[in-house]
Amino acid sequence: MSKRDPRRLPHDFHLWTAVASTVDPLRRKGLLKFTAVPLPIPAEEPVPLVTKAPPRRQPAKRPFLPPYQAPLPAAKAPDRAVDPAIRRKVGRGRIEIDGRIDLHGMTQNEARAALHGFIHARFSRGDRTVLVITGKGARTDNDYIAAMTERGVLRTMLPIWLSEPSLSPLVSGWSVAARGHGGEGAWYVRLRRA
């Protein structure tokens, strides 16, 4: 870094003095107040005033992301649970299960058709409590949460099927079975009186 001659002023000193004359210093205790003294501007070149054209008005930009909208609730089947006292009695064996159907290994269409036929037949016989076995669903190779997909298609679809207009008048409620009857892989379905 070269040393500057203290007697020689920088070439833009006139700009510094113009700016410094517009600034009011802060007043603090113990500090002296300095005022800028304007120095004569050398008559080398007049400084042209640069005026900028007003910026063009740009059309309103659309936001990068649309405004947040809460997701609509999924079309979920109404939850009509079996009375807890009845569920306990069925789970302990005090109320007998009148019929069972196992939907393992069936496609959705086959399982739905079999369920409809079974419920209609049991209702016409006058049965009150049936056990529908859907299974828990296939597990993935690893139970890593990101690798998992929705398990148990039949287990998920059963409440939706039971709330369809063809079965809804026949069914009073359903709930997950007790551990001795299959746990999460089976359902108690309580039928209405004929």
Report the end-to-end length measured between terminal Cα atoms.
104 Å
Query: Roughly what is the average pLDDT, rounded to an integer?
Result: 77
- Look at the structure and give the CATH class of the domain at 84-191: Alpha Beta
Which parts are unreliable, with pLDDT below 50 for 5 consecutive residues or more?
none
Q: How many H/I helices?
A: 4
- Please provide the ordered H/E string of secondary-structure elements: HHEHEHEE
> What fold name stands as the CATH topology of the domain at 84-191?
Ribosomal Protein S8, Chain: A, domain 1
Strand order of the largest sheet: 1-2-4-3
CATH architecture type of the domain at 84-191: 2-Layer Sandwich
By DSSP, the count of extended strands is 4
Strand content: 5-15%
Please give the share of residues in helix. Answer: 10-25%
Helix and strand content put the structural class at alpha+beta
